[in-house]
Every structure is written in structure tokens, then in C-alpha cells.
Amino acid sequence: MRRIAVIIPAAGKGERFGRREKKIFAKLDGRPIFLRTLELFVNRDDVCQTILVVSRADLEEVKTRYGANLGFMGVRICEGGEARYDSVRAALEIVNDDAELVAIHDAVRPCATDAVIDAVFAEAAKTGAAILASPLQGTIKRVSDSGTIDATVPRERLYEAQTPQVFKRQVIAEAYANPPESMEGVTDDACLVERTGHPVSIVESNFTNLKITTRADITLANAILKARPAAKPQKKLGAFEEAQW
Ligand code: CTP
Ligand code: MG
To answer: How far is the CA of 84 from the centre of ligand 2 (A)?
Structure first.
């Protein structure tokens, strides 16, 4: 049985979501986004540890409102930092020594299916580093400063990175131990691993593993969840069967 530590960064400010409600607590079909995301992992046989990273501003609320629930699920809470990088680094420090792989998955990607999670876990076990990614669908234009098109970029071999991003524990530890001088352009964990020279494999996913960024994404995520077969509560707490599409 594989031993996988799962880090769920949830310490962002959710600025693009708006201030009316904190993004990670917003409800998706009646339940907070971050809880739905945690439930994708906590009952998996191959997961040995789950760490939820929360901002200092949200710690009290998470502990008071959800502490019992999280304790029951065996979730460890840790305090995040200013940038996502700082949040993941804080969690890496408390990953169990006996974890073989570390999976990092945005708290705001609640629609990942068991099937894509299985696939990226398996690929990372084989290669040491693998991420989910979705092939680009549209026509891609590179635009000049003046707002006119410089080039139409062929979309072959272009992918949008998603999470989970999964690495052998030593591979991600080494990447975080030797960060670049500037974090400009470093927008995911794979990027740090790529810099070390370790190859990172792509496991193909699709747009349904969306990241909740703005309020409109809630409508989309609700539609995606609704289109899937109903959960079987006796099998997994809140987990959903694989989507047909
Ligand atoms: N995140 C984090 N710590 C940070 C910044 C981001 O743990 N300092 C987490 C977010 O909570 C989210 C994930 O990283 O689960 C992806 O980030 P993003 O979608 O950008 O969310 P936010 O940073 O919260 O949103 P925004 O950029 O609009 O403020
Ligand atoms: Mg952000």
C-alpha cells in the first residue's frame, strides 16, 4: 500500500472571489468547498496523512466551526503564509518521514474525481513527479503591448496545469530547499521541481477539475457535481463516483 501525504493549501485571501464571503467557506451544494475537497482524500487507503493549511486570519474560525469534524477525519491543521509557496512550505515541514509521496491539491478544486486522483497518484509512484493537466481547447493568441495579435500559438502540446501535483517526498523537499531567488513566474509546485531538472509527467485531465476563482465558478462547479451520479455515502464520506464525462 502506497503512503501518500496530502497537503491542501487553503490559506489564500480569495480576492478574486470577492469579499462578501470567504472563498474556502463558500458552499457548494450545501457544504463548504474546503470540506468537499478534503473528503476526496481522507478515506483513501493510500493516504497516510492529510494537512489543511489555513491562514492566520481563518485559524480560529476553522478550529471553532470545523475542528471536531476535521479531528474526526484525522486532518492536521497548519498555519499558512503570505504566498502559496509559504503555505506549502509550512506544510512540508510537518509531513511524516514515512510518507513516500506528497500530493498537493488546492482546497478550491473540489470537483476532482477518484479516477483522475488514482491516475496521477499511480504515475507519480512510477516516475517520481506527476501532475494533472488539461489540454488547451481554444485558439491561443499572443498579443503585443499595443493590444494587437503578434502570433497564433499552436495549441498542440499546450496544457493548463491543475492539481493534484504529486512528488516523491525527497523530490519536492529538495525543490523547496533550493528555491529560486525570485518567485516571479513560479505559479505551481511543479515549476519548482522542473527547475531541479527532475522530469515531471502530465496526466491528462479535463476542465471539470476546475479551480474556484470567481463567484461564477460556483455555478459551474454545482452543475458539474449535479451531472455526476449520486454519492454512495456508505462507501465514502461525501466522495463522488467517477464522472461519465
Ligand atoms: N493559497 C494558500 N496560501 C496562499 C495563497 C493561496 O494556501 N498564501 C491557496 C488558496 O487557498 C487556494 C490555492 O492556494 O486553495 C490556489 O490559490 P488561488 O486560487 O489563487 O486562491 P486565492 O489565493 O485564495 O485567491 P486570490 O488569488 O483570488 O486571492
Ligand atoms: Mg491566489
So the answer is: 7
Ligand 1 contacts CB of residue 97 (under 6 A): no
What residues pair up with 9 in beta bridges, in sequence order?
53
Evaluate: CB of 106 within 6 angstroms of ligand 1: yes
Residue 22 in contact with ligand 1 by CB distance below 6 A: no
Q: Measuring from atom 16 of ligand 1, which residue has the nearest CA?
A: 106
pLDDT digits (tens, 9 = 90+) for 92-102: 999 999 999 99
Matching residue, cell 470545523: 66
Distance CA 130, CA 83 (A): 23
Residue with the nearest Cα to atom 10 of ligand 1?
A: 12
Grid cell, residue 28, equals: 457548494
Neighbouring C-beta atoms of residue 12, cutoff 10 Å? 21
Q: What is the pTM of this model?
A: 0.93
Give 90-93's long-range contacts (Cβ < 8 A, gap of 24+): 90/53, 91/7, 91/9, 91/51, 91/53, 92/7, 92/172, 92/173, 92/176
User: How many whole angstroms from 235 Cα to the centroid of ligand 2?
Assistant: 34
In this structure, which CATH number among 3.40.50.720, 3.90.550.10, 3.40.50.80, 3.20.20.80 belongs to the domain 4-239? 3.90.550.10
- Give the Cα separation of 124 and 113 in Å (integer): 17
16 Cβ closer than 6 Å to some ligand 1 atom? yes
Domain range list for the chain: 4-239
- Per-residue confidence (pLDDT) for residue 230, from 0 to 100: 75
